[in-house]
Design brief:
Elements: H1 3-10, H2 15-30, E1 33-43, E2 46-56, E3 65-73, E4 79-89, H3 90-96
Antiparallel strand pairs: 1-2, 2-3, 3-4
């Protein structure tokens, strides 16, 4: 194995790469539009990403139903797990500040 091969194999993922992986995979899992990335941080060797998705658009106004999903991404870019943490409306978020 060459030095270049070793560096490719051990090259860590950056935040932007992890966010792209999360966006692509959560959309496949949930078939919803990404509203925003809430957080992206390391947790040991893995990455934890929280993503807000629009579960249901409001019929009137802008009180969409939003769901926050947490995703664990391994150092090689594999998705290890995904779960919905909570659901809320935009008005709920505005009320809490």
């Amino acid at each position: 194995m060459t030095t270049a091969d070793r560096s490719k194999k051990t090259s860590p993922l950056g935040v932007s790469q992890v966010i792209a992986i999360a966006r692509d995979n959560v959309a496949l899992f949930a078939d919803m539009q990404v509203d925003q990335i809430v957080s992206c941080k390391r947790s040991g060797e893995d990455w934890q990403v929280e993503v807000d998705l629009i579960e249901a658009r409001a019929r009137l106004g802008d009180n969409d139903l939003i769901a926050t999903f947490s995703m664990t991404v391994s150092p090689d870019g594999s998705v290890l797990g995904i779960e919905r943490l909570r659901r809320y409306t935009r008005d709920d978020l505005r009320a809490t500040g």
